[in-house]
Design goal:
Layout: E1 5-10, E2 15-20, H1 23-51, H2 57-101, H3 109-112, H4 133-163, H5 165-171, E3 186-189, E4 192-195, E5 202-205, E6 208-211, E7 217-219, E8 224-232, E9 237-245, E10 248-258, E11 265-266, E12 271-275, E13 285-292, E14 295-297, H6 309-316
Length: 320
């Protein structure tokens, strides 16, 4: 049966007769049916999404993908945090264990953290990352990379110094500057605050004093380079300063004469001058200083005070 024809009961003839449906009527009914279906669909969608607070399948799929990405970024940030803690532990050991062993200054925090802070370098992510997780991950990656680079360079420097460990062994000022086992030598003043023999008040004494006869040989306490040979009338008198590298320097003051010149390379046990009574001094003696990383330290911590004459002669004998 064609859709343009329809059987209709005729009560006069008591029979079903063919009834033709006009095209205009068919089109209007079809349009009305389509419009009703569209309105119904929109209504269902509105009720589904607004009234019942439900979301479309596509939106739900996007949200699930977004949550999965967020979870991965959260995991990545936690891994960054764990790696940062491990790197921080290395930095602490580097600054307070490894570098001091070789007389190296610690790396300041502003150097390790250089380039982070100030201008917001991740502002371009603001339109894409409402929660801040993405910008946090990228920031953590940048910081971790920079700190790891600084740490790797520090380890490279340390490895080069480790190769020179033998040189460091002889550079550290580890023997007395004069033969303290001799009966002619007397320990006369210690390191630290003491009453000044000239002014009577308490002042910092940055070295130790070893009294003895004028002309007693003074020796270098470690390998190094002579960086100062000067005369200080109101202080050290004739003095010699040696830079041993690895953060160490030594000063030998009140000499009657220096037997080395600026720029000369000296070896442990080599004679560098003679004991005297020059400068601010009340009697013949040697004022001896050990300077580590630009700070005076107690020289008595660097040599054996009970050394015998035989041991001293062995220490100052030329190395083969």
């Amino acid at each position: 049966m064609k859709r343009s024809k329809r059987y209709k009961f005729n009560p006069e003839t008591l029979a079903y007769e063919i009834h033709r449906i006009p095209i205009k009527s068919r089109l209007s009914k079809g349009f009305l049916l389509f419009l009703l279906s569209l309105i119904t669909s929109i209504g269902y969608y509105y009720i589904y999404t607004q009234y019942f607070s439900m979301e479309s399948p596509k939106l739900l799929s996007l949200k699930r993908e977004n949550e999965a990405i967020k979870s991965r970024l959260d995991l990545l940030n936690r891994r960054f945090e764990s790696a940062s803690k491990s790197l921080y532990a290395l930095e602490m050991k580097d600054n307070y264990v490894y570098r001091p062993i070789f007389g190296m200054d610690e790396i300041p925090e502003d150097v390790r953290n250089a380039g982070f802070g100030g201008v917001d370098r991740y502002s371009y992510l603001n339109n894409f990352d409402r929660s801040g997780i993405l910008s946090t991950a990228i920031s953590n990656l940048d910081i971790l990379y920079k700190k790891a680079f600084v740490q790797s360079k520090s380890f490279e420097d340390l490895s080069l110094l480790a190769i020179k460990a033998d040189q460091m062994t002889f550079a550290v000022p580890a023997i007395p500057p004069v033969n303290i086992s001799s009966s002619k030598i007397r320990f006369s003043s210690s390191f630290g605050y003491r009453r000044d023999p000239f002014y009577g008040d308490y002042r910092m004494h940055s070295g130790i004093d070893l009294a003895g006869p004028v002309g007693e040989p003074i020796i270098a306490t470690g390998d190094g380079k002579v960086v100062e040979v000067r005369y200080d009338f109101f202080g050290y008198g004739n003095y010699v300063m040696i830079d041993h590298g690895f953060g160490y320097k030594t000063r030998y003051a009140h000499l009657s004469k220096a037997t080395v010149v600026i720029g000369e390379e000296v070896s442990r046990g080599q004679k560098i001058g003679l004991m005297g009574n020059t400068g601010k001094s009340k009697g013949p003696h040697l004022h001896y200083e050990v300077i580590y990383r630009n700070r005076p330290v107690n020289p008595l911590n660097y040599y054996n005070r009970d050394i015998t004459d035989e041991e001293f002669q062995l220490l100052i004998s030329p190395r083969g």
